[in-house]
Amino acid sequence: MRDYDLRATEKGYSLVSSKKYICTCSFNCIITNWCNFKVKSLEICKVLHSSLGLNLKEYKIFRKQFWLENYTISIFKVYMRCIILILVNKINSLNV
Fold first, then answer.
1. Per-residue pLDDT averaged across 31-51, rounded?
2. What single string gives the DSSP state of each residue in the chain?
């Protein structure tokens, strides 16, 4: 379940699963910069903490509310993903 699924369920909405998309959001069509290895390292870190990226402050609150038992691991994974993407950028720049 995603965060919007949990919020909808909490507000009393019914959820429906389907094999195909019912609709799409044009704002979510491109990969976000914080998880895109083609973006420069500094940009990855900036976007990670912004509302255009993961919005880490909100993500931490969400994780604490719904999955407190694995909160630390989930936040660690976010930072590891960021570090790995930065390392991939560095390796790719050396190979060019």
1. 70
2. --HHHHHHHHTT------SS-S---GGGSS--GGG-TTS-HHHHHHHHTSTTTT-HHHHHHHHHHH-GGGHHHHHHHHHHHHHHHHHHHHHHHHH-
